[in-house]
Specification:
Elements lengths: L9 E6 L4 E3 L4 E5 L5 E5 H5 L4 E3 L6 E5 L25
Parallel strand pairs: 1-6
Antiparallel strand pairs: 2-3, 3-4, 5-6
């Protein structure tokens, strides 16, 4: 299991709901004790990654989340609801 590799090197675990999300960058952030922020992209979460890295130090953070919420191609907000009427002019 690659996600469990290096478990001893994980600084802490945090629920994804406790992280800040930047829609423009599509990344989740969480404060790091060094003063920077842990980060993990939405793309990595879709691939099943659970470790966020701090770019300024060696600390790593385990992100606790439901992988089903990050299934690739599951962007419900981009889909047109079946009850929507589209008028072409």
């Amino acid at each position: 299991m690659a996600a469990d590799a290096g478990t001893d090197n994980v600084y802490d675990e945090v629920e994804i709901e406790d992280m800040d999300y930047d829609e423009d960058e599509e990344k989740y952030y969480y404060p790091c004790p060094c003063g920077d922020r842990f980060e993990i992209s939405k793309e990595l979460l879709e691939e099943g990654e659970t470790i966020a890295h701090c770019p300024s130090c060696s600390l790593r953070l385990r992100v606790v989340y439901d992988p089903d919420e990050f299934a690739p191609g599951d962007d419900d907000d981009e889909a047109i609801p079946l009850s929507t009427t589209i008028t072409v002019v």
